[in-house]
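Supplementary Methods, section 5.1.

A reviewer requested that the exact input to the structure prediction be made available. We therefore reproduce it here, unchanged from the version used in the analyses.
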Amino acid sequence: MRRVPSRLTPLPEWVIDRRKALGQRIAEYRRAAGLSQDQLASRVGVERRSIQRYEHGERDIKFTDLVLIADALGVPLADLVRETG
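The structure derived from this sequence is encoded token-by-token as follows.
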């Protein structure tokens, strides 16, 4: 298995906070759509664990997966990534 090089510097806290907020929005839209994590994962073509990690803000989301998640949830990508507050 190929290893991804680690970051040279740790992520700033505000980046981690935004990643967590995005994950919370994904979870909210998923629940509103009446989908389980398994169902969303199947529609996106990833494992359920990936969806779980995205929703908990534990993993950066590849742009392709983000586009597929927005489509699977029937939400414009801009609405999914838009910051609120």
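The mean pLDDT is 93. These observations are discussed further in the main text.
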